[in-house]
Specification:
- It is a single chain.
- The protein has 239 residues and is of the alpha/beta class.
- It is built from six helices and ten strands, in the order αβββββαβββαβαβαα.
- It has a domain at 1-40.
- It is 26% helix and 20% strand.
- The strands form three sheets. A four-stranded mixed β-sheet has the order 4-5-7-8, with no helix packed on it. The protein has a three-stranded antiparallel β-sheet with strand order 1-2-3, with no helix packed on it. Strands 6-9-10 form a three-stranded parallel β-sheet, with helices on one face.
- The radius of gyration is 19 Å and the shape is globular.
- The two termini are 22 Å apart.
- The model has no long low-confidence stretch (mean pLDDT 96).
Length: 239
């Protein structure tokens, strides 16, 4: 959404066409021959409905590889949904090869999925034709002690960024996993490392002012807002 808005406002009034089919949204800027495609597969690997229920297949990207092929730029993002459990998780089983599991260590599952994605990129992407980006881990703010406010339980009521040159809390462990996988790839992937700068922005979440009513949303971000900064960084890395 942020990237689409930034592109449109840079050429206000330009002709465009927007469609959505299932999880795929396509925005075409007709005057410029530019197409922006959003794939809402939050796990990168396949999420497949089967008779036993929805299965998260950690060793397969067969459902997405056609969509990912043939582009000038690919920007990937995951992790946000990997920690959800119970009714909030969109799958019933995890599959690795022939093994079917009810659950497993989520960080191990995350790393396995990233390795599957990385193998596809290394095998199928020509870096002379396609530039690949990966968005760093987007942090949440549900623990005030992370920003030296132990009396606070979430982002509600926060109106300013965390002060000072250094964020008091630690980096999410998922970021180290992400960097490890990217460092082992043959195809160069540019990490859009937004984690630390986003940790400071405890004030940038929807909190109770978005769709959430029963609990503060301290995971997603307001638009216009912090995601615009991420996209400005993306723009600067392109040129």
């Amino acid at each position: 959404m942020s990237l689409a808005c930034l592109l449109y406002t840079s050429v206000p009034g330009t002709n465009y066409n927007m469609t959505r089919v299932g999880l795929i949204s396509t925005l075409k800027f007709l005057d410029y021959g530019l197409t922006l495609i959003l794939d809402r597969n939050a796990f990168l690997v396949d999420l497949v409905p089967e008779k036993i229920g929805v299965v998260l297949k950690l060793d397969s990207v067969a459902g997405s590889e056609k969509l990912w092929s043939g582009h000038d730029l690919l920007a990937f993002n995951t992790w946000h949904w990997w920690g959800y459990k119970g009714a909030q998780q969109p799958w019933k089983y995890i599959q690795i090869g022939t093994r079917l599991l009810k659950d497993m260590d989520r960080m191990v599952a995350f790393e396995t999925a990233l390795e599957t994605w990385a193998k596809w990129v290394d095998t199928n992407v020509d870096p002379a034709k396609t530039t690949v980006f990966f968005l760093g881990v987007s942090p949440s703010h549900y623990k005030g002690s992370d920003w030296n406010q132990p009396q606070v339980k979430n982002c509600a009521g926060q109106t300013r960024p965390v002060p000072g040159p250094t964020y008091p809390g630690v980096l999410p462990p998922a970021l180290a996993v992400q960097k490890k996988v990217l460092s082992e790839m043959r195809v160069p992937v540019k990490l859009l490392d937004i984690t630390t700068l986003s940790q400071f922005r405890v004030d940038a979440h929807p909190s109770f002012y978005g769709a959430a009513t029963a609990a503060a949303d301290c995971t997603h971000w307001c638009i216009a807002g912090l995601p615009d900064t991420w996209n400005q960084l993306l723009y600067n890395l392109l040129y």
